[in-house]
Amino acid sequence: MRARIQLNVPLTTLMGLSQRPGELGGFGPIVTEVARRLTLNQLTNPDARYTVGVTHPITGQLLHLHPLPQRFLRGLQAELVHALNQRCIWPTCRRPAPTCDLDHNTPHAGGGPTTPTNTAPLCPHHHSVKTESAWTLHQTTPGHYTLTDPHGRHHHTHPPDLTDPAPPQPQKNPKPPPAPPPPAPRPATPADDDPPPF
């Protein structure tokens, strides 16, 4: 099996609207200009052997995975599931997705299709636990899963951020705090008949 490299780049970086770096899966951040050149190379070079994941500029989650060249299309759906989830989707499991089994959320025998929207990466141990016991798995949206244990408790997982989320932007012209209410008028006190001592 050949190793595959995934380059993740925020959409705004590819559009030239920001200078946020790309992220080379398993290695770390790479300079913005290098990320743009590698992406262009992937689009124009049929021999490129890596994928480009376009990420949401705010959340850092995968929006689109640029496919591998034509000769690799057989594994494209698996590649998409691996790229989206990165790891076994069982809570607290850290096994990398490419070394996991692709499990059908709705069993294939029960009419579940073999598509990215009905598969999830589960390590062999957790695949066995889900298949051989009363655990159920439901994918609400791509990469967002709900595992239900035999006692009916729900465990939610979601895809990791593949690039750092954008820092929050400062508010422009924030509204000033509301003025404090005027003091309540004092109740009138009866005047003393005695003159002041001075």
TrEMBL record:
Domain HNH nuclease as annotated: residue spans: 75-128
Stretches with biased composition (Pro residues): 165-188
Taxonomic lineage from the root: Bacteria, Bacillati, Actinomycetota, Actinomycetes, Propionibacteriales
Protein name: HNH nuclease domain-containing protein
Species this chain originates from: Actinopolymorpha pittospori
InterPro entries named among the record's database cross-references: HNH_nuc
Region of interest: Disordered: 141-198
